[in-house]
Amino acid sequence: MNITIIAETSGNQLHSVTSQLAGAAGSLGGTITLLCPGGVGESEASKISGVSKVVSLKGDCFSSFDSGAWSAAMTPHCEGVVIASSSPTGRELASQIASKLGVPVVQDLTEIGQDLKMTRSIYSGKAIETSTASGSCVITLRQNSFESAGSDGNAELITVDSTSEVSVAVKEAMAKAGERLDVSEADIIISGGRGMGDPANFSHLNEVADVIGAAVGASRAAVDSWDEIPHSMQVGQTGKTVNPSLYIAVGISGAIQHLAGMRSSKYIVAINKDPDAPIFGVADYGIVATWEEALPSLKEELAKL
Amino acid sequence: MPFEALDFYNVDSLLTDEERMVRDMVRDFVDNEVLPKIEHACRDGVFPDEWRVTLGEMGVLGAPLKGYGCPGLSYTAYGVICRELERGDSGLRSFASVQGSLAMYPIWDFGSEEQKNYYLPKMASGEWIGCFGLTEPDYGSNPGDMITRAEDMGDHYLLNGAKMWITNGSIAKVAVVWAKLDGVIRGFIVEDGDEGFSAPEMKGKHSLKASVTSELVFQDCKIPKDRILPGVKGLRGPFSCLNNARYGISWGAIGAAQACFDSAKEYSLSRIQFDHPIASYQLVQNKLSWMLREITKAQLLAYHLSQKKDAGNWIPEHISLAKMNNVDIALEIARVARDIHGANGILDEYPVMRHMANLESVKTYEGTHDIHNLILGRHITGIQSFTRHLS
Amino acid sequence: MTIAVLLKQVPDTTAKIAVSEGRVDQGSVSKWSTSPYDEYALEYALQLKESGAGDLVAITCGPSRSSKMLTDAAAVGVDSMLHVEADTSEMDSKQIQSILAAAIKHCGADVVLCGKQAADTNSGSTGPGVASLIGAACVGMVSEVSMDGDGFSALRGSPSGNERVVVSKPCLFAFDKAATELRRPNVKGIMMAKKKVIEKVSPGDLGVDIGESGIKIHAHDSPPEKPPGQKFEGAESVPTVVAKLREEANVI
Ligand SMILES: Cc1cc2nc3c(=O)[nH]c(=O)nc-3n(C[C@H](O)[C@H](O)[C@H](O)COP(=O)(O)OP(=O)(O)OC[C@H]3O[C@@H](n4cnc5c(N)ncnc54)[C@H](O)[C@@H]3O)c2cc1C
Ligand SMILES: Cc1cc2nc3c(=O)[nH]c(=O)nc-3n(C[C@H](O)[C@H](O)[C@H](O)COP(=O)(O)OP(=O)(O)OC[C@H]3O[C@@H](n4cnc5c(N)ncnc54)[C@H](O)[C@@H]3O)c2cc1C
Fold it and tell me: How far apart are CA A145 and CA A264, in angstroms?
């Protein structure tokens, strides 16, 4: 079986999820080709274990994201099962490539089994779907759901000049306000809700986050009530779906739409003053206390480690 | 989460698609714009002006009236609107009842073509608020003996007297005032700013706190000749307005009752006493099942009345029965719901005490509970018992 | 110019999802709603229409119950509605995209707005796939769009923040959560919606042969029950919880 991986990039670097894609591909068995759009991270990519060929696609069309142009340049190099990350750009590329190949796409898999048995969550985590493809297909994989491949590979590196027509022109790029890690990238997330009382109190979450290298997230009530809390921090149904090892919910009641975005976290800690808050229903460790009491102690304890 | 109203017999499935869409629209408004603000409005004793604007934008004011910029909905839709508004607060529903049924309706039914064209579009859009002046300090249940008088001065009318308990009075641009001209009750349109007219607000209410209630004072109030409503003489004028408003109240009260039931149900399921949720005790279940029973009956009553109203085969006594019954059970449900909430029931974190206090007014205005009893008594026996000559 | 907005009816985000006989039990869904991201697309499509960009058609492909969603869309101001009646529950991405692409062509639309993903399948395949089929420029993660000369200017999320991009038609915008919520209808709109007729067609009427699904769904299952968590009273328990995170959970 041939497998083609679409490398996920982050700025001028290879995104770490690319290794997870390779890890998952490795478990399927087959010849793995990795496509690096714009040549980004090509040398790092060639060291990922199990990859036999890296195709570095160079061309002006890769200077900014245009899924139409990128997929047009990449599709001719896609063979067999195509695997991408289920990031927003990954999904967009995957479905464009699938459409150009004339095959179906299945997004956001959390497991792949024998004979490409695919597992994904649907209805925002309220059900699980398992399926198989009758022919070839494009799939995207959820970050942090698959083991990374090693970094002792030595793949052949081929550089290809690509041209394709760009139709989405970037006029202006507005960087995110903070330097803070994005919730979709983080392995530990601490999120605040309306119970934080005031956006200024998110500084207490930031302090804890700094101690453990966590990202800071928020509930929709926090995002909607306070301009200082941007939508990019929102976790849930209409925000980001996250899958960290540890999710700490502070002053969040645990509405079903919030759970939709975080219930698949490996471990959940809830800090809430209301012992009946639904968030305790999904928490592995619940602390019934106000954040004012709990956060200073949490920071102190974590700093000791 | 959108409100899931108790509807045990799925009576709402009898509504048309259009009526259901209107319901969802108003419910959304109440969830998102009324409930987050209502306790504040009550504490401050104000009717938030943005509600007027949104009611106008939604196009629900004067719901069943046709033409002149009015919505032209069914009476059923009007009932549904009242129910959804009153699920938020009776004060909000009062605003809409007064505007539509008591101020716009008499102009629509009894006004001249000019009056209709001039007033109705601006009242339907919410730009102009209306009020209805019938009750006087000394004449409540017995408006027929009112004192307020109009005098024909040749090129204008002169109004003298006072009205009391007038919803929207101080915020109204347009007051429909009932006064005697040569001993006959007639309707007059008084505008904010007319010479000799003032509308001081009445303060200190423990009920309908988010609704403005005022006196209307006329001291040699001069109004132009074209402000009399040409189409009606006698008590039939104000009473036909009241029929429509009372009809709306018979639906509205269900909304308040649904809100109280919902709160009582949620509370009783989560409140633990003697190791178990209080909802698990028979006495509490008895209360909840009684509420469900009464709300379901009230819904069927209101729905059937709406069909009669839309078909035009109704009599005022039908409306009296529905107003009286539905407000009565809503008030009783609010009281029982308050009881189920224990001490928490007196807090403004829960809607029950507010609904309870509001419904006390609703029981009194638009014909007190007992006046409707007397109306039905007269209907049954043919003998009026409102008054008698005491020797 | 014609603008199309693609809408999908999904179980309301508050609805319970039950599984019976290996499939999500659609019959037990208590409430159906327009998928949340589609509502943002609809709001901005209405804004485009109001700024003079063209007529607006709402398109859905789904079972007959989805018609209600189109009537709701008419009440807020879409000009016409197309309902491709089909059961999409076992269709793969390719099948559904080919139907929608044909529907868009049928309406003559050259600007398409949709949600970035539907709240049932949670996939996010439809917009980009359809863009590819109709040869339209694709902009994803959009939170704002407006006319800009002959083309359109949009704000889209990027890994490092936001980007303002410009495209010309044909183009497709897949919406993320946006600043403006879908407007509420008013009585006038509701009365008008009653008069608008929904055009109902089958995939065959549009000349589409969707063939067989390339994906075979084996089963839907309820997610595994999580073992009950441990609950601690008071901030005094923080050291205990931190110790457990380290020793039991091994996550810090
Ligand atoms: C279509 C749709 C999509 C949605 N999408 C999302 C989404 O993506 N993400 C999302 O989060 N929500 C979403 N929601 C909203 C969701 O329904 C809830 O309204 C929201 O999650 C509530 O946020 P919250 O928990 O911060 O606030 P609340 O529900 O108000 O909870 C605040 C909590 O803080 C606690 N608290 C208060 N003070 C303190 C204190 N001092 N210390 C500790 N605890 C305290 C309280 O006990 C309470 O439990 C969506 C809703 C809809 C209808
Ligand atoms: C908040 C609020 C808003 C209002 N808004 C308006 C408005 O916008 N416009 C307007 O014109 N009016 C309005 N009213 C006035 C309302 O219509 C009157 O209060 C009502 O008609 C009762 O009149 P009353 O208060 O004078 O009571 P009364 O008539 O004095 O009655 C007192 C009690 O005596 C009973 N009673 C009276 N007559 C008899 C009888 N014959 N037999 C047995 N029992 C009898 C009554 O049932 C009642 O229990 C409002 C009232 C309130 C509280």
Answer: 10
> What are the per-10-residue average pLDDT scores of chain B (391 residues)?
86 96 97 95 97 98 97 97 98 98 98 98 98 97 96 97 98 98 97 97 97 98 97 96 97 98 94 94 98 98 98 97 98 98 94 98 97 97 89 61
Instruction: State mean pLDDT over C49-76.
Output: 96
In the structure, what pLDDT confidence band is assigned to residue A89 with cuts at 50, 70 and 90? Answer: very high
* Both structure tokens of C58: 């709402």
* Contacts with A260 (C-beta within 8 Å, 6 or more apart), sequence order: A124, A125, A126, A236, A237, A241, C13
Closest CA to B208 of B22, B364, B63: B364
pTM above 0.95, yes or no: no
Per DSSP, the three-state class of C100 is helix
Task: Identify the nearest ligand to the CA of B214 by its number.
Answer: 2
| Ligand 1 centroid – CA A193 distance (Å) | 6
**Gap between the Cα atoms of A76 and B132, Å rounded:** 77
CA distances A31 to A22, A135, A253, Å, are 11, 17, 47
**Residue among B1, B29, B73 minimizing CB distance to C187:** B73
Is the domain spanning C2-224 CATH 2.40.320.10? The answer is no
Q: Is A195 on the interface with C (CB under 8 A)?
A: no
Q: Give the length of chain C.
A: 252
Instruction: Compute the average pLDDT of residues A112-119.
Output: 91
Counting one residue from chain B and one from chain C, the pairs whose CB atoms sit within 8 A come to: 39
Q: Report how many Cβ contacts below 8 Å link chain A to chain C.
A: 277
Residue A157 C-alpha from the chain's centroid: 27
Report how far residue C220's alpha carbon sits from residue A193's, in angstroms, rounded to the nearest whole number. 32
- List the subunits that have 3+ CB pairs under 8 angstroms with C: A, B
Of A68, A172, A275, the CB nearest to C163: A172
Nearest neighbour of C238 by CB, restricted to A132, A231, A298: A298
Residue C76: closest CA among C236, C164, C198, C187: C187
- C-beta of residue C116 within 8 angstroms of C-beta of residue C127: yes
Report whether pLDDT(C228) > 90: no
- CB atoms near residue B124 (< 10 Å): 25
Whole-number Å distance between alpha carbons of B226 and B382: 40
CA–CA dist C33, B1 (Å, integer) = 12
Per the prediction, chain B carries an average pLDDT of 97
A183 lines ligand 1 (CB under 6 A): no
**Residue C187 with chain B: CB contacts under 8 Å:** 22, 25, 58-60, 63, 71, 73
The answer, yes or no, to whether any atom of ligand 2 lies below 6 A from the CB of B223, is no
For atom 37 of ligand 2, which residue has the closest CA? B141
Does residue C68 sit at the B interface (CB-CB below 8 Å)? yes
Give ipTM to 2 decimals.
0.92
Residue nearest to atom 23 of ligand 2 (CA): B140
The question of whether B366 is a catalytic residue gets the answer yes
Residue B380 burial by CB count (10 A; 0-12/13-18/19+): exposed, middle or buried?
Answer: exposed
CA C80 to chain centre: 18
**Partners of B228 in the β-ladder:** B188
Do the chains contact at C187 and B60, CB–CB below 8 Å?
Answer: yes
Q: Which atom of ligand 2 is nearest to the CA of B133?
A: 11
What's the full length of chain B, in residues? 391
